């Protein structure tokens, strides 16, 4: 019997809980680590569909779109995340979003 790899195990668990944000995020990160950015984008977007304020997925999407050279999408995602994070006490994440935005803004 073949041993399942981590992504296969995650997909098996996802069958039981398709709207589990953690599982979708984990699969997105697996795809990202493999360099499969399109699949990664799909799963990060699904996380945001499930949980509209899922800023970890927004941050990862911003990084991917930055890598793809789509600064318009990067800034749009970061602005959304910053607005969400301003209403929280998560200053570390807020600062990460602001720093990434500053790196992608032409002055």
Kindly describe this structure.
This protein is an all-alpha fold and 107 residues long. The chain has one domain: Serine Threonine Protein Phosphatase 5, Tetratricopeptide repeat (Alpha Horseshoe). The chain is 77% helix and 0% strand. The chain has helices spanning 6-16, 21-34, 37-50, 55-68, 71-86, 91-103. The protein is globular, with a radius of gyration of 15 Å. The termini are far apart.
| First-to-last CA distance | 58 Å
The class by helix and strand makeup works out as mainly alpha
As a percent range, the share of strand residues is: under 5%
| CATH fold-level name | Serine Threonine Protein Phosphatase 5, Tetratricopeptide repeat
Q: What is the overall pLDDT average?
A: 95
Can you write the helix and strand succession as a string?
A: HHHHHH
Basic shape: globular
Number of domains: 1
Biggest sheet character: none
Number of helices: 6
Question: What is the level-2 CATH architecture name?
Answer: Alpha Horseshoe
Residue windows where pLDDT falls under 50 for at least 5 positions: none
| Share of helical residues | over 70%
- The overall strand count is 0
CATH class: Mainly Alpha
Cα-atom radius of gyration: 15 Å
Key attributes of the depicted protein:
Serine Threonine Protein Phosphatase 5, Tetratricopeptide repeat; 6 helices; 77% helix; 107 residues; mainly alpha; single chain; 0% strand
């Amino acid at each position: 019997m073949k041993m399942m790899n981590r992504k296969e195990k995650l997909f098996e668990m996802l069958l039981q809980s398709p709207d589990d944000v953690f599982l979708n995020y984990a699969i997105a990160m697996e795809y990202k680590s493999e360099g499969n950015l399109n699949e990664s984008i799909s799963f990060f977007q699904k996380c945001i569909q499930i949980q509209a304020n899922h800023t970890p997925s927004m941050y990862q999407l911003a990084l991917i779109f930055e890598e793809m050279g789509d600064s318009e999408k990067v800034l749009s995602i970061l602005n959304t995340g910053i607005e969400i994070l301003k209403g929280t006490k998560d200053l570390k994440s807020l600062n990460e979003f602001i720093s990434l935005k500053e790196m992608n803004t032409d002055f």
